Amino acid sequence: MLEEIRKGIYRLAVRFPRGKEKTNCYLIEGKSGYTVVDTGIYSESAIQTWKDVMDSGIHVEKVVLTHVHQDHIGLAAWFQRETGVPVIISEQGYQVMKKLRSAANIERLNHILPKHGGPRLKSDAMKDDSFIYDLEPDQLFSEGESLRLGDEEYEAIWTPGHAPDHFCFYNRERQLMIAGDHILKKISPVIGLWEGEEGNPLKDYYRSLDLIEPYQVVLALPGHGEMIENFRERVRETKRKHDQRLDQVLSLVQDKPVTAGEVCRKIYGEGSFPSMTSMFMASLTRLIYLEEEGRLQRSEVDGVYHFRIAESEEN
């Protein structure tokens, strides 16, 4: 069940219910017990997985979160209430949590999707998981702070983009980076507007890639997929992939104004929502990024936003 990644550091893959996806949760050994980094998504099967781990003799000292997306914070409240384990969250994560308590996923998505050429989702399209944010953290941390995970010190590095509250944790002595969803081995994390508020998270993501690239890393521990050994090259490759997608989006806007929904369908094909929501978000955040860069401009037609090549680009 537990895979030892490095001495005293173990990975537990917590599967999604009824799916092949899973979240990498890490257990870091210390004299007072194990620090758990991320919990996996909320489900009865995930709860049973953690019960089996603790029944095997594992004592969890505390839970620390890289960010508060559902598949990382999902069981934090369960740990706190059912086992008395303290939960430690970033100050940014706490602010996001408070927003997510007040509205279900469906409401947040319906604030964004229709305005950008997507469908309005029906009330039963997605499960309401706002209850997982119904907890008060036992401790908050901030950017640059040193956190004790197990018995070792890790630097908290704020890396917004995939999530506004995303943090990586770096151990300088071991040259280990707990990367969360910031860098993955084979795919790029989705950059979206999951809180239902417009911003430019792709710009944040590029900045966070630049911030993390210089770190000396012999092994990165991601939130999904396999471990990353060529960390710096993977960061650079991720940048290149995003650059290529931006060029692709620009090529789709040459002939006429388009919505994010139209760009999504041209790149990823036809599909049903909510399964296409991640692809829609990726398309939308690229358009917003290019707009802020001055390469696209938007107009509103019948309450829906369209993007076209900026006049400066045409000249």
Automatic annotation (TrEMBL):
Residues 22-224 form the Metallo-beta-lactamase domain. InterPro entries: Metallo-B-lactamas, RibonucZ/Hydroxyglut_hydro, Sec-metab_biosynth-thioest. It comes from the Bacteria. Signal peptide: none annotated. It holds the Pfam family Lactamase_B. This is MBL fold metallo-hydrolase. It comes from Virgibacillus sediminis.
